[in-house]
Amino acid sequence: MRPTKSTSWFVAFAKWTARATGRPITFAIAVAVILTWAISGPFFHFSDTWQLVINTSTTIVTFLMVFLIQNTQNRDSEAIQVKLDELIRATAGAHNMLLDLEELEEDELDRVRRTYEQLAEQARLAAQHGKQDTDVPEVSTDQSA
């Protein structure tokens, strides 16, 4: 089952924007714009309009970037969840009830988390007494064995 890649213009634009804005050159361009604006201050007598230009510009860019970055984050998070679900599903002995934990209510999720915290504590105590913390035997690295 090979999923098809999205052809949505918005998804493509959001991916491209997220990649482009995360590059050092984009940061350098942003710094150059701010420096140019700051240097131009004396020419405009540090007027209200001069200040409004940068305030409005940065507000608009920030407002739009929030939506683009959130879209990219949502898709990435969902893809990771699906991949983790597949690893759980394909792992012998794994609990399939964990497949869609992100869909649980907070109190249900807390209950499951507490169960795993208890398991972790038991494993730490066992390890302190020289026992294994997994059901899988250790791999020997001893050359004489």
What can you tell me about this protein's structure?
The protein is mainly α and 145 residues long. The chain has 2 domains: 9-94; 100-133. The protein is 66% helix and 0% strand. It contains 4 helices and no strands. It has helices at residues 9-21, 24-40, 48-90, 106-128. α1 (9-21) crosses α3. The two termini are 44 Å apart. The model has no long low-confidence stretch (mean pLDDT 87).
Radius of gyration: 26 Å
* Mean pLDDT, all residues: 87
Percent range of helical residues: 55-70%
Total count of domains: 2
Note the overall shape. elongated
Structural class: mainly alpha
The number of E-state strands comes to: 0
Number of helices: 4
Q: In percent terms, what proportion of residues is strand?
A: under 5%
Low-confidence segments, ≥5 residues, pLDDT <50? none
Straight-line N-to-C gap: 44 Å
Helix and strand sequence: HHHH
Task: Give a short account of the largest sheet.
Answer: none
